[in-house]
Design brief:
Chain B: It holds the Pfam family CcmH. Chain B: One of its GO terms (biological process) is cytochrome complex assembly. Chain B: Possible subunit of a heme lyase. Chain B: One of its GO terms (cellular component) is plasma membrane. The complex is a heterodimer of chains A (658) and B (158). With 658 residues, chain A is an alpha+beta fold. Among the domains of chain A are: 160 residues, no CATH class; 105 residues. In chain A, strands 2, 3, 4, 5, 6 and 7 form a six-stranded antiparallel sheet that branches. In chain A, helix 1 packs antiparallel against helix 3, helix 11 runs antiparallel to helix 13 and helix 16 runs antiparallel to helix 17. Chain A is globular, with a radius of gyration of 27 Å. Chain B is mainly alpha-helical. Chain B has two domains: 96 residues, Helicase, Ruva Protein, domain 3, CATH 1.10.8; 50 residues, no CATH class. Chain B is built from seven helices and no strands. Chain B starts with a helix and ends with a helix. In chain B, 35% of the residues are buried. Classes of the chains: A alpha+beta (658), B mainly alpha (158). At the A-B interface, helix 6, helix 8, helix 9, helix 10 and helix 14 of A face helix 1, helix 2 and helix 6 of B.
């Protein structure tokens, strides 16, 4: 019964979205206030309806209602509660329902916080948002209905893929979707502005918080997924340049570009048409990502053939919305005259370079991702484009970005002085060179990756600190820092985060140590400065799996000393899905992780053991957290709360001028 | 990477799950006694694709075909092949699909050139734009329209 109610709510949400898409658009065109004001209650109603529908599906998963086909295929009564809940979106139909839920949420938020927008713009934004929603409701209802019943319900379900039964991955999709779909509101703003024929500083200010929010969520979502891959897949890889990963990375890069170019629109009324284009592209790439993930066309032509209906449907959505928006853009972009005048050496120009680098690197990821498809269809060549290509073709742009970032972020608006900024940054440069040189001197191999990465990372972090220091003014008044706008703090924290991530990636890739061997219980072996002893191997039983658990003691290899860590790597088998997983045991420390994996038993009674020393591994995700935190700080800047229309009697008097 | 099992039913969660491994890649019994030779084998393996997996190198893969390829690479190295010869041997048998890093031959030059060419193009456009902004006259009309002024007053009141 509840499932039927959920289904009905979804259909009602579909109908509401159709109304929200059409009536306000006509109203805005004809300037009829009554018609325009339909948008807000419709957005709220649509959100409540789809939320009810989602809750109904979640209820079915929580109560293990095996009369629902989706629950049978993706759940099991013995599964822990957390994974019953996350099972709701751990499948195609449920994840699409989550997608529209978030789409409707963003629409509703734009309605709730958009009191400050001009009425026609607000009506158009909400109408465009609803149009996207209509397409996805139709997709779900006609091709991927989650509420289908079984004629003969089985006794129990087929379980969720065991790899997904993990806390990190339980929350990875919601965050990723909040990011992906959050970009839809920027898209709606861009299309609405094109229809209005007007982009000004206020538009930039409205779009930026939404972009920031989407970018923050994407950052967290990608970091969670990457961290999960690190500890779950059993050898500590954290990024594979897989098409499906790239699908989330391209919108992230575009969102980062958009977030920076919107600043120029907001502060200087320049780069307008480029920013609108970026907003369209950012969401367009979210749609491309959805297409890649949902159709499986790039990972396997076979998977696409299994489900052509769905793939073609999403492709059609992609073509209609991105194509339509770009056509509109081509017709209207010329009307958007830039106002701000700035010198060749200025913050504006630096942000143009930032945008070029981010957009081009995203383009490189894109072409690398689709190239196998292009090559096969156009030139009849079956080939692969894997990590080595991306490392070679993508990294140079990131290095350039890292080199320029501290300089650009300190240049003055309108007309800057490069020599002045360069003078301020000399200590940071010296420090970075010293660190890079030191690392070059002490490392044993001849790889350039480590020293260059350490140089860049240090340069970014020290550059952000220099920026902060420069804000204390001539007389080094530290109290000025407390009064800095949050957006400025956000900028510095996020840029520091990028530096930390670069340090982590280069440290891990350059100096990782690995040892693979067969070990008997009681045997001790060493890797680097550590001695490992396999104390015991036992068989244990979990709620819905069997496990082989090793017990490994880690002590210093040379000096006498106490135990550093006691680790329990596991190898699990989930009987329902007939699938083994490895649960690496990791000793997390600030400067390095020890990563221990137990493998298969060998004929002579030994076990395959793999141990890794992974320097700076945590820094990768620590940096991502800092980037997200920077975004949140910036988002909390009071200027956006005012711009977002939260009407409150803020103490305007006590705020210093910038 | 077991796309067949993992893929379709699982959600976006699968962003990363594609790389599922089961048993682990290189096994101790495959490894060569000569550490230098073994290091070369590992390096070569990292650039060769496991043919039955999705975008996974034979070094990372647990598939039995990947194991066969790993052993084949080691066999060639022991037989005295250079790195390039060993790779060439594998490509000769399995086609260029096996290379994770596509060669810069034929149309693939387009792939390799795309980034740099796009960058130069964008840099040129950007420079033109920046130059034009630098030369532009400040917009004369900096005043607000009546509507904007009313909204500004409204904002300031709050």
């Amino acid at each position: 019964m509840i499932a039927e109610l959920g289904h009905a709510a979804l259909i009602l949400a579909f109908i509401t979205a159709i109304v929200q898409m059409s009536v306000p658009l006509v109203g805005a065109h004809k300037r009829w206030p009554g018609w325009m004001s339909v948008a807000e209650p419709a957005a709220t109603a649509q959100f409540l309806l789809v939320a009810a529908s989602f809750a109904a599906l979640m209820h079915a998963f929580i109560t293990s209602d095996f009369s629902l086909r989706l629950v049978v295929e993706n759940s099991h009564s013995a599964k822990p509660m957390l994974y019953k809940i996350s099972g709701t979106w751990g499948n195609h139909e449920g994840s699409m329902l989550l997608w529209v839920l978030i789409l409707a949420l963003f629409g509703a938020m734009a309605a709730w916080f958009g009191g400050n927008l001009p009425p026609t713009l607000r009506a158009r934004v909400l109408a465009v948002q609803a149009a996207v929603a209509v397409a996805f409701y139709a997709f779900i209802l006609f091709t991927s209905n989650p509420f289908l019943r079984m004629i003969v319900p089985p006794m129990d379900g087929q379980d969720l893929n065991p790899l997904l039964q993990d806390p990190g991955l339980a929350f990875h999709p919601p965050f990723l979707y909040l990011g992906y779909v959050g970009l839809s509101i920027c898209f709606s703003f861009a299309v609405a502005a094109l229809i209005e024929g007007r982009v000004d500083a206020a538009w930039g200010r409205w779009v930026r918080p939404w972009t920031l929010a989407a970018w923050v969520f994407l950052t967290i979502g990608i970091a969670l997924g990457s961290w999960w891959a690190y500890y779950e897949l059993g050898w500590g890889g954290f990024w594979f340049w897989d098409p499906v990963e790239n699908a989330s990375f391209m919108p992230w890069l575009f969102a980062a570009a958009l977030l920076h170019s919107a600043i120029v629109v907001e502060k200087r009324e320049a780069l307008k048409s480029w920013t609108v284009l970026l907003a369209i592209l950012a969401f367009g790439f979210s749609l491309i990502g959805t297409f890649i993930v949902r159709s499986g066309v790039l990972t396997s032509v076979h998977a696409f053939a299994n489900d052509p209906e769905r793939g073609v449907f999403i492709l059609a959505i992609l073509v209609v919305f991105t194509g339509g928006a770009l056509t509109l853009y081509a017709a209207r972009a010329g009307a958007m005259e830039a106002k701000g005048v700035f010198g060749v050496v200025s913050r504006e120009s630096a942000l143009v370079v930032n945008n070029i680098l981010l957009a081009v690197s995203s383009f490189v990821v894109f072409i690398g991702t689709i190239w196998p498809l292009v090559a096969e269809m156009a030139f009849g060549r079956k080939l692969s484009v894997g990590a080595p290509f991306f490392e070679a073709a993508f990294t140079p742009f990131m290095i350039l970005l890292g080199l320029i970032l501290p300089l650009g972020s300190m240049l003055a608006w309108k007309r800057g002085s490069l020599s002045r900024v360069a003078r301020q940054l000399v200590p940071a440069l010296v420090l970075a060179l010293a660190m890079g040189g030191l690392v070059w001197a002490i490392q044993s191999g001849r790889t350039l990756l480590g020293p260059v990465g350490v140089f860049l990372g240090t340069w970014l972090v020290a550059g952000a600190l220099t920026d902060l220091w420069s804000r204390t003014g001539r007389n080094r008044d530290l109290s000025r820092l407390l009064r800095l706008p949050r957006a400025d703090w956000g900028k510095m924290v996020a840029h520091t985060g990028l530096g930390v991530t670069m340090l982590g990636i280069s440290g891990l890739m350059a100096w990782q140590q690995e040892d693979i061997r067969t070990v008997h219980v009681g045997e001790t072996w060493t890797l680097g400065d550590y001695a490992f002893t396999l104390k015991d191997v036992t068989r244990e039983q979990g709620p819905n799996y069997f496990a082989t658990v090793g017990e490994v003691a880690v002590t210093p290899a040379k000096a006498q000393g106490g135990e550093i860590a006691h680790l329990y790597p596991e190898k699990r088998t989930y009987p329902v899905q007939q699938m083994p997983t490895t649960e690496a045991a990791i000793d997390y420390r600030f400067l390095r992780d020890l990563y221990v994996v137990i493998g298969d038993p060998q004929g002579d009674g030994g076990w395959v053991m793999r141990v890794y020393i992974k320097p700076l591994a945590n820094w990768i995700w620590g940096g991502c957290l800092l980037m997200a935190l920077g975004g949140l700080l910036s988002l909390s800047d009071r200027r956006y709360r005012i711009a977002a229309g939260a009407r409150r009697q803020a103490a305007i008097g006590g705020v210093p001028a910038e | 990477m077991i796309w067949g099992i993992a893929s379709r039913r699982l959600g976006p969660a699968l962003v990363f799950a594609l790389v599922a491994t089961v048993a682990l890649a290189v096994q101790p019994d495959e490894m060569l006694d000569d550490p230098a030779l073994e290091a070369r084998a590992r390096e070569i393996s990292a650039g060769l694709r496991c043919l039955v997996c999705q975008n996974e190198s034979i070094d990372d893969s647990d598939a039995s075909l990947a194991r066969d390829l790993r052993l084949l690479v080691r066999e060639r190295l022991v037989a005295g092949d250079s790195d390039a010869q060993a790779v060439e041997y594998i490509v000769g048998r399995y086609g260029e699909f096996v290379l994770l890093k596509p060669t810069a031959s034929g149309w693939n030059r387009l792939l390799w050139a795309a980034g740099p060419v796009m960058f130069l193009l964008a840099l040129g456009l950007g420079l033109t734009y920046v130059r034009r902004r630098a030369a532009a006259q400040p917009a004369v009309d900096e005043t607000l329209t009546a509507e904007e002024q009313a909204r500004l007053d409204d904002l300031m009141k709050n």
